[in-house]
Structure formats: structure tokens, C-alpha cells
Design brief:
By secondary structure, this protein is an alpha+beta fold. The protein has helices at 29-39, 43-60, 112-116, 145-155, 190-203, 206-211, 216-223, 245-253, 257-266, 285-294, 299-302, and strands at residues 10-16, 21-27, 68-75, 81-87, 90-95, 119-126, 133-138, 160-168, 174-184, 230-236, 238-239, 270-273, 280-283. Helix 1 (29-39) crosses helix 2 and helix 9 packs antiparallel against helix 10.
Length: 306
């Protein structure tokens, strides 16, 4: 099991405007660097996955203990599918095609929108109820931040501004990463919304501010200037995968007895890799034979089910 903890990544949660505004801001440089190292991502893939992981950290801070949130981006661009999951400050994620190489966009920045393409964004929240919450919206930009802002407005009926950024050095290592979510709560006054919109526009690139030494608390002050924000909580987070041999064995058994027997004949053993952290688990011939004994038979082997 990969469990990489940095210690310097954290977020803050604040309210302002007499309870009309909720804001979260995070520094996620180590989270994104750890994901980059684990998946060997290219410049553009690092930026895309880093934004999604940062968003998961921020949205996860809105949940209660032991609740889980998963964000999935399915676009038709060369990056393929991206997934990020968070529970209790432990975040994991992956990008289907980590080696995406694209020219810079018209503004001279990494072209995340082109890498992601058109498609849909899914949000699943396991709140401990009978059924998880499912939300789905079309991708409106592919930039992740604007797509999540659209999700909050459409699926949760809570207007929000979302800023996410990843700044890389010339070698592709993470100089700074982070982001913010600012939500307007029900009953917000129009003057408050207008001032907040101006504040968000003035903030600019969140990753460059963080690279210059800006803290999450500083981001909150800039975003909520004029609203006397109150910090409610500070929370650390890190990349952490909960995979194990036992879980991978269960996944292998889902292939069914026939498929496992074919692997035994062709390879004599099998390797299973966790998609979230790239940890490889090797199962010997003896272990594979045991999985075959435990695996469910193919439908044709079960006979007629009445």
C-alpha cells in the first residue's frame, strides 16, 4: 500500500459576509508532486491531474468524517479518463493517459482543455446513506475549475467560483499547486455577489501566488477582502492509497474461474497493478491456483438457475 505523506499541504475553511459566503483555499504542491512521481506524468497531464486532485481535497473538506467523494472526468481528449477520490484527508487519483504531450495554448499555458476535450464530469458522494449521491454535468471548458463551478451551480444549486492551478518548473517538477472554492449561500445579497466577483477576478493565477509565498490564509483574505472572513478550520491532506494484496486478489477473482485458469496456463503467475498508486502485486502459481478455487464459476458451469 502506498501512503505518501508530505506535511506541508493543508487547506483552510472560512465564512464571511454574515454567513452568506463559504470559502476554502488550499496549498497542494506535495500532493500533486507525489502523484506526478507515482504516475510519471507529462507536463500537461501533471497539470490536469493536479487540478482534479486539488479539487478533491477542497470538496472533501465539505464532508463529514468517513464520508467519501469521487470526481471523475470523462473527456474525448488524449488524456482519457481522470479520477480523484478523497476520504478523511486521504486522496488518490490517476489519469488514463499520463504521457500527453501537447503544444502550449494561445495564451502560452499548458493546454489542459485540449487534453481533456469534451465530455462529462461526474461527482459521487458516499454519505453513509442507503444510496450514494450522483451528480453529472457536461464539461463546459475542460479546464476543471470552470467545469466544477458549473457543477456546483447546476447540480447543487449553489453558485461558486473555483480556481485551480499547477505551476511547473522547466524540468516538469511542481513548483506550486493549489486552489480555492468560494460559494454563495442561499439568500446572498446582490451587492455581496458583485463584490465577491470582483475579488475573484483580482486574485488571478492561484499557483503563481502560492509560488510567491502566498498561504491559504492569504488567499482567503484576498478572495474575501471587505467581508471580514473568519477561519473555521485548518486541515492537512496527502496522497494516500488504500490498496492491498487482499483487495487486488478480490479484483482478480472477479475475472472468473475460466479467465484465471487461462492466465495460469499462459503465464503461470500474474501481476496486478493498482491504478491509483502503481503498486504491483505478484501472485505465484500456488496463489493463483487458490484464487481459482475461490473464484465463481462461469455462468455455463453453474447450470440452469431457477
Amino acid at each position: 500500500m502506498a501512503n505518501i505523506s508530505g506535511g506541508r499541504d493543508y487547506l483552510v475553511r472560512a465564512v464571511a459576509g454574515q454567513g452568506q459566503i463559504l470559502a476554502l483555499a488550499a496549498r497542494s504542491s506535495e500532493l500533486v508532486q507525489n502523484a506526478k512521481s507515482l504516475h510519471g506524468t507529462s507536463f500537461t497531464a501533471t497539470a490536469a491531474l493536479g487540478r482534479l486532485l486539488t479539487a478533491a481535497a477542497l470538496m472533501g473538506a465539505m464532508l463529514k468524517d468517513r464520508q467519501t467523494l469521487t470526481i471523475r472526468v470523462e473527456g474525448d481528449g488524449p488524456a482519457g479518463m481522470m479520477v480523484a477520490t478523497v476520504r478523511d484527508g486521504k486522496i488518490k487519483g490517476y489519469i488514463q493517459e499520463p504521457h500527453v504531450y501537447l503544444p502550449l495554448n494561445a495564451t502560452g499555458k499548458l493546454d489542459v482543455a485540449q487534453a481533456v476535450g469534451e465530455g462529462k464530469l461526474y461527482v459521487v458522494k458516499d454519505l453513509g446513506l442507503r444510496e450514494p449521491y450522483h451528480g453529472c454535468v457536461p464539461l463546459v471548458s475542460g479546464e476543471i475549475g470552470k467545469d466544477l463551478a458549473y457543477y456546483f451551480t447546476v447540480s447543487e444549486q449553489t453558485p461558486a467560483a473555483v480556481g485551480l492551478g499547477v505551476l511547473l518548473d522547466a524540468e516538469g517538477e511542481v513548483r506550486a499547486a493549489g486552489g480555492y472554492i468560494v460559494q454563495l449561500l442561499p439568500g446572498v445579497e446582490e451587492a455581496v455577489a458583485s463584490q465577491l466577483e470582483a475579488n475573484v477576478a483580482a486574485v488571478g493565477s492561484v499557483s503563481r501566488l502560492l509560488a510567491e509565498g502566498c498561504t491559504p490564509e492569504d488567499l482567503i483574505e484576498r478572495l474575501l477582502q471587505g467581508f471580514s472572513p473568519t477561519i473555521l478550520a485548518r486541515q492537512s491532506f496527502a496522497f494516500a492509497c488504500d490498496c492491498s494484496r487482499e483487495r487486488l486478489a478480490e479484483v482478480l477473482m472477479l475475472l472468473g474461474r475460466e479467465e484465471l485458469e487461462a492466465l495460469l496456463v499462459e503465464q503461470g503467475q500474474v501481476e496486478a497493478r493498482c491504478g491509483f498508486c502503481n503498486q504491483v502485486y505478484r501472485f505465484s502459481r500456488e496463489e493463483l491456483e487458490e484464487l481459482i478455487r475461490r473464484a465463481p464459476p462461469a455462468r455455463s458451469e453453474r447450470g440452469l438457475e431457477l
